[in-house]
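Work Package 3 (structural annotation) set out to generate three-dimensional models for the target panel prioritized at the project kickoff. During this period the team completed the workflow that converts sequence records into discrete structure tokens, so that structures can be stored uniformly alongside our sequence database. As a representative example, we reproduce one entry of 156 residues exactly as it appears in the project archive.
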Amino acid sequence: MSLEDRISRVEAELAIRNVIARYGMAADCGDIETALACHMEDAVYVVSNPNAGRGDVTGDLELKGHSAISDMLSSEIHQSLLPNCAHTVGPLLVEVDGHSASVLGYSRVYHNQKLMRLAVNSWTMRKEESWKIARRESRVIGEDEAQTLLNKGLQK
């Protein structure tokens, strides 16, 4: 692999990591436009047990497209976390393949300085003009599906 190709891969990985971090920080401060700018227009976001840490166990939430993601970020349940929350990610494994990439890693949501949600995440990233999230699946630690995401992601 040429030096130019290696530098391009490193730049892509850094850009991808920054998009994922930017989304979490935008969600924390209620900046919905910035959060949406991190996603493809037709992005899919699957969240298992979105009420984890609040006492209620619920099924999966599947969001499709900017409108659905915006509705989730604008919802009373999400807004009730602000400004006392922090979405953090990492460590992350990033595999770049041309204009697409797969990312595997952990995420945490803290509320009032206490861990509220710990999850395994699989992101599919695409680059058109810039890198964006095309798909994200977030599974709470302890779920069988979380282990499946880890095992599948490590096989790449």
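The beta strands are 39-47, 61-64, 85-97, 100-111, 114-127, 131-140.
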